[in-house]
Amino acid sequence: MPAIVGSMFAYLAAQLIALAVPQVLEQIVDGPLAHGERDQVVPLALLVFGLGAAEAAMFALRRWLVIGPTTKIEARMRNALYARLQDLPVSFHDRWPSGQLLSRAVSDLGLIRRWLAFGLILLVGNLLVLVAGAVILISMSWVLGIVFLACAVPLWIVGYRFEGRYSEVARRSQDQSGDLATMVEESVHGIRVLKAFGRGKHALRSFREQAESLRSTEIEKARLDANIWVWILIVPAVALSICLALGVWMASQGQLSVGQLVAFFATAAVLAWPIESIGFLLAFSLDARTATDRFFDIMDTENEITDPERAAAVERPRGELAFNDVHFRYQDSPDRFGDLLDGVDLVLQPGETMALVGLTGSGKTTMTALTTRLYDVTDGSVTIDGVDVRALTRDELRRHIAMAFEDATLFSASVRDNVLLGRPELGREAADADPAVAAEAERVLDEALRIAQAGFAYDLPDGVDTKVGEEGMSLSGGQRQRLALARAVAAKPSVLVLDDPLSALDVATEARVEAELRTVLAETTALIVAHRPSTVMLADRVALLEEGRITAVGTHSELLRESEHYRYVISSLEEDERRAEAEASDRLLDDDRKEAIR
Ligand SMILES: Nc1ncnc2c1ncn2[C@@H]1O[C@H](COP(=O)(O)OP(=O)(O)OP(=O)(O)O)[C@@H](O)[C@H]1O
C-alpha cells in the first residue's frame, strides 16, 4: 500500500506540475510579452524548464515505486492460487477444465498486476487532477470553467451505461480464452489419439470455431470501446470550441486578459489526457475486476474436504481398514440414479491382502478413492484402525495409506524424485545435508524399484537421475506403471491401495512383480482392484462388489464355489485376458513374420 499510494502521489505531483506551467505562461504573456520586458522572459522560461524536469522526475518515481510491490502481489496471488488448487478436492478438479485454471493463473493475474501498477494509479490520479483542474479553470473564469465542465456531463452518462455492457463482454471474453486454453491443453495431451484416429482436421475445425467466437467477443469489446472513445474525443473538442468562441468574445469585451485566455486553454489542454484516459482506464478497471472475480471464483470455492479442527492420530498403525455402511454418489450424478455405493461393509484385517472384484463401472475405483479422502463418503464411514479417516489430518492419513493407479502419472522430475515422492524426509535437500539420509534414500529407492520390477530405471541415460514425465524421457505404459507402483511401495504405508496397477504389464513381468509384492504385502494391508484372474490369485481373500454392495467375501475358490455372479465376473475377466494375450501374440507373430521376410 505505501508504495502504491506513494506512486499515486508522485503521479498527482507530476500532473499538478503540468497544471502549473499554464500559470507561468499567463505571467509571460500578460507581463514581459505585453510590456516588452525581454530580460524578464528568461527566468520565467527557466522556471518552465524546471517544472518540466520535475514532472519527468515524478513520472520516473511513479514507475520505480510500483514495480517491486506489484510484481510481489502478482507472485503472492499466484502462489495462493496454486496452494488453493492443491488443497481443493478431486471433485473440484473434475468440474474445472485445466485451461480455465491456467488462464486464471497466468493472464488474469498479469492483468491485475498491470492494473495495480498503472490502471489504478492513473485512474485515481486523473480523477484528482480533473478536480484540481476544474477548480483552477473556475478560478480563472467561472463562466468558461462551468461551460467547459458542463460539457463533461454527457461523458459520465455514457460511461455509466458503458460499464454494465462492457463488464459482461469482458467476462465472456476471459472465459472464452480459458476454454481455448483448455482445448490447446487437451489436444496437446491427446495428440497421439488425435493422430491415430486421423482427427487432427476435426480438432482444428472445432478450435477454429472456438477461436472465432473469442474473436467476435473481442470485436464486440473493441466496438464498445470505440463507441466510448468517440464520446471521449468529441465532448472535450466541442467543449473547447464553445469555450474558445465565448473566451474570444469575453476578451474582446475586456472581461478577460489575453494571458488569462492563453492560460485557460493551456490548462484545458493539460486536462485533455485525464479526460481522454478515463474511458480506457474504465475499461481496464472492468477487465481487472473480471480477472479478480475469476480469481476469487476459485479462492472462494468451499472446500468440503478439510482437516478436522481437533485431529485424531493413529500412533502405531496396525493397518486395519474398514468400510462401514458406506454410501457414495458423485455430486453431478442425476437424481434418478441411486447411490453408486449403497451400503458397503468390508473389513480388511491388518496384513491382509484383499482383491476387489466387480463388473466394469461397479464402483471399485470409487471405493479405493474413499480411503484417502480423494472423495468423502456421503454416508457411513471409512476407518483405519478404528479411527474415521475424516478425523485425521489429510497429511497423516496419506502417510498411512499409499495409492497406485492404473493411469500412472509421473511428474517432470527424476526417477528418484518421482519414486520418493511420498517420503519427503528422504528428499534431495535432506539427503544432501546428511549422508545417512542419502544412504537410506538409496536403499528405499533400490528396494522399491526391485519390488516393482523397475530395474530398467538404472539403464536410462542418467540412471535414476534421468528426468521422466512430461517434457522428460518417454516411458512405456508398463514402465510408468511400475514406477508408480515403486512410488506407492516406497511410501512404506500401513495400507496399500492398488487400483489395477499391473494392467499394462505382460504376464511374465506381472508374475515377477506379484512375487516381490508378496514380500511387502506380508506386513502391509492391501486393497487391490483386480482386472485379471492372476491379480486375484495374489490376494488372501476376494471381495465382490455388486450393485453398490459387497455381496460376497472369501477366498477365490470359495467364491468360485458359492457365488454365481463371481463366476460370471471371473469368466468375463478371463475372456478379456485371453483376448489381450491373443492380440499380444498376434503382434509378436507379425513381428516374427516381418523379421522372416526381411
Ligand atoms: N468423477 C466422476 N464423476 C462422476 N461420475 C463418475 C466419476 N468417476 C466415475 N464415475 C462414474 O461412477 C461409476 C463407477 O466408476 P468407477 O471408476 O468407480 O468404476 P470401476 O468399477 O472402477 O470401473 P472399471 O472396472 O471400468 O475401472 C461409473 O458409472 C462412472 O461413470
UniProtKB/TrEMBL annotation:
It is a multi-pass membrane protein. It comes from the Bacteria. Pfam families: ABC_membrane, ABC_tran. It comes from Agromyces larvae. The keyword Transferase does not apply. Residues 576-598 have a biased composition (Basic and acidic residues). This is ABC transporter ATP-binding protein/permease. Gene3D superfamilies: ABC transporter type 1, transmembrane domain (1.20.1560.10), P-loop containing nucleotide triphosphate hydrolases (3.40.50.300). Keywords: ATP-binding, Membrane, Nucleotide-binding, Transmembrane, Transmembrane helix. It is found in: Cell membrane. Residues 575-598 are annotated as: Disordered. GO terms for molecular function: ATP binding. The lineage of its organism: Bacteria, Bacillati, Actinomycetota, Actinomycetes, Micrococcales. Its main location: membrane.
